[in-house]
Amino acid sequence: MENSILIKNITLDDKVTDILIKGDTIEKISERIDLVANKVIEGKNKTLIPGFVNMHTHAAMTLMRGIGEDMLLMDWLYKKIWPTEKKLNDEMVYWGTKLACLEMLKTGTTCFNDQYWSLSHAVKAASEMGLRSVQPFVILDLFDKERWNKIKEDCQKAYEESAGWNKINRFAIGLHSPYSVSEEMLVWGAEFAKANGLLVHIHISETKGENEDSIAKHGLTPTKYLDKLGVLGANTIAAHCLWIDDEDMEILAKRDVKVVHNINSNLKIASGYKFRYNEFRDAGVTVTLGTDGCASSNNLDMIETMKTTALLQKGWRGDPTAMPLDELMNLTTRNGGIALGLNTGVIKEGALADLTIIDTDSYAFTPNISFYANLIYSANSSCVDTVICNGKVLMEKRFVQGEHEILDNVNRLYKKLL
Amino acid sequence: MENSILIKNITLDDKVTDILIKGDTIEKISERIDLVANKVIEGKNKTLIPGFVNMHTHAAMTLMRGIGEDMLLMDWLYKKIWPTEKKLNDEMVYWGTKLACLEMLKTGTTCFNDQYWSLSHAVKAASEMGLRSVQPFVILDLFDKERWNKIKEDCQKAYEESAGWNKINRFAIGLHSPYSVSEEMLVWGAEFAKANGLLVHIHISETKGENEDSIAKHGLTPTKYLDKLGVLGANTIAAHCLWIDDEDMEILAKRDVKVVHNINSNLKIASGYKFRYNEFRDAGVTVTLGTDGCASSNNLDMIETMKTTALLQKGWRGDPTAMPLDELMNLTTRNGGIALGLNTGVIKEGALADLTIIDTDSYAFTPNISFYANLIYSANSSCVDTVICNGKVLMEKRFVQGEHEILDNVNRLYKKLL
Q: A4-50+347-403 adopts what CATH topology?
């Protein structure tokens, strides 16, 4: 018998309803469903939301959580992160990605857009944990021609191997950034992606210095430079876009580039915070949110990300009506699905069964005048009770299979990185 | 036999230790204590920190959590908060304060500096919940001379009644603000406090408009105006101080005024965010943190408050070394004790036994390279396992006596406010 789950008496958009999941799909949403299912979940005192989509992270960097605190950016990068990354091996990436997946389940995320090393080991970890993910082959040549042939061969090979991946993990191209990848490889990567119908995940204009360097080197901002190379398109997912002028904005809108805002990371390493959300929205750009890796922002919590995002938009604009609750929720759910071309991030019949169940029986949801205000501004992610991805229950009542095995292995391995 | 608690094998400042509590006091801290106690708490995989001190809140405003979201400040105040407050009664304040205390226990706070109405009912609630608090009689005359005599009489009466309070609740004077209280009553309140050795809790320079109005009316900033009146002293606790010039800073330092920064509230209602922490610290001012009431910032979570505080200091200064972890922890613990003149916020023999136990056996503390980085940047307040205040266990393994009675009563009452 096909996998089926019946969720009874759960609150959805302020109404109590039943939901039937069959296979990987939401089959039926109705006030009362009396069908037999393999599994029944009681939804009393609980509210259903779409699973969150974390649109920018480096999952296995959970291993480096707290490794470089309160440091200047260049000290942090040169003295901490890069020396540490040299010691990483496949086993570490495997367990680091598992820890990231565990954390994402605990905080209600069902889908993530990754960018890190040891691709096949990251994919193995994500597959075993059951989360949906986009996993890029990362191109980062540091302008070294000698690496080009090997990168091209490795990328081709990785792409071919990806045919054997669990179907909920999708292969993509990671172009690290215009300041770390040569023109040749930026163009090659973008063309490879286009030829094979793949997404491209790239960092753009994270820091002011990056823009200044780009103008000094190319006479163009990173966005204009990438556009000149023909790299940008509807399949481009651009992380950060924190230092974007009006012309850049127009280009990103025209090319239908998807933008990922990562406020906690931007603040913590002091890259900036005046993300031009209203202008992106009004230009028709699909804006999404991400956490970045745990070396820069320390966790993968999308509820916290929503809160900080909204507080900063209200704060820097001096406008308490900025970033209203309904738009905020869309950034972490519906827009993620749109950006990745997946039928996730929405709760409707026919959509993928990627769902998060929130327990509202607590002080944080009392009084429950506004569920979304409570979720984002009052509660923390410990309100996440149960997580379903691709029609499978991955966490139930906060229990995730194999949790302590993951913690034990990370505790065994991280010391080798110090 | 006197109340005694023995905490075994707990981590304190990266060392495993035992702690003995007798009565309301930390009696002994030693690697191994083999004495008999009324209660033994096993501290394996747990870390001990001082209970947090929330230095500015309006506790019973938990009742208005989520009542006015994404609104312009004046609409929020005139259309939502003030009309709602007119419907408040003593019973509501009692249960609202209980909900606040429940939330504070769940998030590791043992002491709070309150400012709200129905004083005796707030005190009753706090006493029953066992938290330490400072509870002011609030003076807010809106420049109406007709109210003066009654306010003075009521204040005197409330002060006399406070002799009968549980000793962990202290009477204080609340002067709402220089823009809502007449010169006569500001001076009277400050003198009453001085004559009786009481703290004064006041809002200063929360918004830019408040400063502009003060200059228009008095030719002076709020700080300079209050100083001219002789209101400021070492017993003054000044909430916000967000718009402070160099001369104000010098006055606040000279008078030894204690300052409370409330970043989540400041951001959410868009009052500002460039709190001059480094300058206050360098001027020798005792800086503390608060949450403000739940109508403006939605929760009473001091761990989250520390995170947002640090992110904003790093962010607006463009300096990732700003607000390092050790200073940040002091703001919510030691400095709160200093500001309130209480031997709380520190863990040492002879200090008050106001303690919070953190459970580190989770993804958020894995790897545990830096406990404080994990506590503040990775975890959320669900890591708070057990809370002891004044030598009594108020929450154990996240269980608080009477939790559902509080939620049920708030759920019954808040609808009358809508």
A: Urease, subunit C; domain 1 (2.30.40)
Given a contact cutoff of 8 angstroms between Cβ atoms, the answer to whether B297 and B324 are in contact is no
Whether A313 contacts chain B with CB within 8 A: no
- The H or E element that residue A258 is part of is strand A258-261
CA B316 to CA B104: how far, in whole Å? Answer: 29
**Length in residues, chain B:** 418
pLDDT 10s digits, B367-382: 999 999 999 999 999 9
- CATH architecture group of domain A52-340: Alpha-Beta Barrel (3.20)
CA distances from A252 to A227, A258, A279, B360 (A): 9, 8, 12, 43
Under an 8 A CB cutoff, do A367 and B299 touch? no
A362 backbone dihedrals φ, ψ, rounded to 5°: -160, 170
Query: Tell me, what amino acid is at A362?
Result: S
Using CA atoms of B124, B161, B150, B86 in order, give the dihedral in degrees to the nearest 10.
0
pTM, full prediction: 0.98
For B362-400, letters b (16+ CB in 10 Å) and e give: bbbbbbbbbbbbbbbbbbbbbbbbbbbbbbbbbbeeeeb
Residues of chain A with CATH 2.30.40.10: 4-50+347-403
Residues 369-408 of A with CB under 8 A from B: 369-370, 373-374, 377-382, 403, 406-407
Peptide bond preceding A50 in cis form (omega within 30 of 0): no
Q: Does domain B4-50+351-403 have CATH number 1.10.405.10?
A: no
H/E stretch holding B22 reads: strand B15-22
| Largest CA-CA distance found in chain A, in angstroms, rounded | 67
pLDDT at B2 over 80: no
Share of chain B above pLDDT 90, in %: 97
The one-letter code for the residue type at A224 is: K
